[in-house]
Amino acid sequence: MNAGTPAAVRIPLIERVTDAAISGFLWALRIIVILVVVIGSYLTLASGRYTNNWLDFIVGGVVLGSIYALIALGYTMVYGILRLINFAHGDIFMAGAVGGYFTAVALASVDFLNGGVINAIVSVALMMVVAMAVAVVIALLVERVAYRPLRNAPRLVPLISAIGASWTIEYTFRGFLGPGIYAYPDIGVLLENVPVPFQLRWVDLLVIVSAVVMMVILYLFVQRSRMGTAIRAVSEDKATAALMGIDVNRTIEVTFAVGAAMAGAAGVLYGLEFRQVFFLTGFVPGVKAFAAAVLGGIGNVPGAMLGGLFLGQVESWGPTLFLAGLGVPAVNQLRDVIAFTMLVLVLVFRPSGILGERITAARA
Amino acid sequence: MEAQAGALRSPEKADFGWRPILQAGLIGFGVTVYLCITGIVGTFAERPIIADVVSLGLTSLLLAYVAAGYLGARAAGVPGGMRIAAGALSGLMAGLGPAALVLLRQVVDYRGFAIQASPALFDLLTFGLGVAGVWIMPTAALLIGAATAAAGAARPAIRRLVIWTFGSLVVLGLFSPLIRVPLLNSPVPSLGSTLFAIQGLTIVGALVTVLIAVGGEEFVRWLAPRQRIAALPARRRQALTGPALVAGLLVVAWLPFGFTSFFAQVVALVAIYILMGFGLNITLGLAGLLDLGFVAFFAVGAYTVGLLTSTGEYGIAHWSFWAAVPVAIVMAMIFAFIFGLPILGIRGDYLAIATLGFGEIVRILANSTLLLPWLGGPQGVLDINKPIPVGPTDPLAGPNQIYYIALVCAAIVAFVSLRLRDSRLGRAWVAIREDEDVAEALGVNLVQTKLLAYMLGAAFAGLGGAVFAALIGSVFASSMQLYVSINVAALIIVGGMGGVPGPIVGAIFLIGLPELFREFAAYRYLFYGISLIAMMLYRPEGLVPSRIARRELHVEPKAPTDGAAVAAGETTAA
Q1: What backbone torsions phi and psi does residue B187 show, to the nearest 5 degrees?
Q2: pLDDT band at residue A249 under the 50/70/90 scheme
Q3: Which of A145, A351, A363 sits opposite B533 (nearest CB)?
Q4: DSSP character at residue B80
Q5: Which domain does A232 fall in, by range?
Q6: ipTM of this complex
Q7: Interface touch B573/A15, C-beta < 8 Å
Q8: pTM metric for this prediction
Q9: Which SS3 state, helix, strand or coil, does residue A319 take?
């Protein structure tokens, strides 16, 4: 063994060539993305066709982003504490939306739903409570059955179990609801415009305000309360937390419950905003909210909020701004492509996300 | 939880507790209610096991009672009468589920909240007697629970006989349409009509089945083939392998002709999925890269073959299938290279999401107006010729040739992946799967090695897509859904990674069976989801794992430990 001599550690030519090819490729990717963004934006703006739409796009982006942010919180908290991508989280969001739907139907059937402003507020509050309850129950069930027994298993095992949990929830609801799309009952007052100089409905305002309120509460809960401290301690180091007298299992349960409650509420907001729900409603928002969580730096609570809002913005005006100028037809079909591309770009070029430093711990 | 798990695991413990029994009953109750309101009972009722007597829907409820009785008896932990009483109690509780649904319906019409709670379901649950029949289910459940508990205590021989009999009834009942048609065309058509109804067994058929099952069980036990073969001297055992192999191959080759033409189509599809399963086996099973975007490469292969061979609107070359396949494979590998290069630096679970994103990107693009002029969007690429142009009556017509092509390809892929597994590259993959840092420290070039695994997997996905295009004769954007990735991933996870039999078994169970029972398509992915969780909990190495995977992944359930020790274990795992 002459491992100490320089000759032994010389990197073979083929590896150097591939390494060069890889970094060249990554640079080409960067340049292409930047070129598409810059040229596309320039051409779109220069065409002057969309001058009136940008404010609408931004409002739409804030609404969408608030919902993503709420869902992303659940991903980020669970990932922070268990290092597990809770694949079923998007479906828990869907369960919340379905719970809210049935509450709304029940309220509509007793002629309560559309009886003025007070009724609307009470209805929405009730819908949220039911949705949160449904979501929390399902999330705790999933945690108990599919995740807890696998906490010591190799990482791929709980991930696969999470995917299984996702399909189980989806197709349980498929059985329960049938394949059809359910239209959320209209709450008349919510669909009227807020008296501001741009297009903003009350429902948009409701989504934004309730999302902000919930995020503030959550932030205070995680940073200030005893349980929040326990959650942070457990995500930092389970063994030490347990030695300090923290009930690890209970802390994890609370984390799941809080994340699910946020997702359930987001489900109702989503339903009110987009006014439909079916058994696969959770899939695409779920993946995108995960992207938002990664974008903000997974494991980082303010990061998830920021990432959600950012993704909402890019998704809202990105297709038009970047692609319409390049002559791409029907740009809105490609919304999801932009969101997924952004996820991949973040993972490749800045895996720690906007605010993340926890990622280094997560990767270890 | 911990204490209760301990009670469940030590039946010799003499203290008799009510709580675990009630818990088992409660689980049973939940399961039966679940089976009813998700529509499983109602939908499966359309599939008789014994015509006009027992349907699959009813069987699902009966199985739930059996399970509840079994769990209750196990929870009781004591031998004798109390054990049977415990089984009866938890069985009864399970049986109260349907009864509760029926009674609730008397109070309030909740169909607006549970569309499956239809009058037909209530007819089923009360055996058509209305509220008057509400007692039947709980009573039956009580008896079944007690019987299960009693059978559990009986001699193993009797237990095995019971399982064997009921198993063969269910299997024969389910597959009866498949067996009936060839029997009707056989020299003794009356055999088909007496034993089998159009769907399900006749009562005569059921009795015959029971007799054969009992006799067969005795016969097999007398024959004891495994022990006999094991007892043979090594040379004679080897001499047996050749003929056994030939016989097996003949059966496999005969399969598409044995039954209906629909069955031929299904076996062709199964063969394609076996082929793709072997492909993903390299990416996931060997290198540990969870690729949920397999459909992207499947789509690339399918569209390449479609565009190159189609004689329709979007065809660009009118090539033959055989010329197009290598191009399809190369294209899939090029796409894998482009996708893989940036993302393979990412670890484990992030990779799953990133690849999922790729799958979606490809699907959306295939469906988009942007690529409509080239790929045909939702209308797709039509008129793809079969690889071997033969007349409609030729034995190689239709799906049959695809079946053979896919099988040959699968065999090649299996051979390649086995040889790779035992090569230097394969060991590098396994090293990466086990621990990237250690692998890198040992001189494995991570990106290069992972990229090779990813590209090889993609090549086989592209091949699968190419054969699929030939099977269907057209390529639609709507065929390129996420479920292709899901199917392939699920089948090798359930079947078992790393070896040859795993993907085969997985494809038969997860592709073949659901295709044969198309009417249950709505519950297919529910079944997948539950089986994935169950596999991860009880058998993470898969149904038929390779020897290595079994050794690596199978962990014997450990005795429950206190919180601190569990937490300590977690940190090492993380």
Answers
A1: -60, -25
A2: very high
A3: A145
A4: S
A5: 62-286
A6: 0.86
A7: no
A8: 0.85
A9: helix
